[in-house]
Design a protein that fits this description.
The protein has helices at 3-35, 44-66, 73-98. The protein has 99 residues and is an all-alpha fold. The chain has one domain.
């Protein structure tokens, strides 16, 4: 492994951290808006898009920490499935790029 490979992993790790933190914040904002009556909510599609765009860990963390969207079956099963899909994508990309 050379210095270029290390830089790729550093940048990819930083991007994943930013994406997951923003997904976590989206869950927090929607939970806080859910407590307010009449507040405009964040669409569930945006939460699923965040999870599909490699932010699934952040969405799942927000579900657990804020106890938000845990009663909806499509979040309960869908977010972990998207995390598995993201892991498979990263695994295949790693194999394609470095082998």
């Amino acid at each position: 492994m050379n210095i270029f490979d290390n830089q790729i992993f550093s940048v990819a790790g930083a991007l994943l951290l930013i994406i997951n933190l923003s997904a976590f914040v989206v869950m927090y904002l929607d939970k806080s808006r859910a407590r307010e009556s009449g507040a405009e909510r964040i669409p569930e599609g945006l939460m699923f898009f965040s999870a599909a765009a490699f932010g699934g860990v952040g969405v799942l963390g927000g579900m657990i920490v804020f106890r938000h969207k845990t009663a909806k079956w499509y979040f309960y099963f869908g977010i972990p499935l998207l995390i598995l899909q993201n892991m498979a994508t990263l695994f295949l990309a790693y194999g394609f790029l470095f082998n």
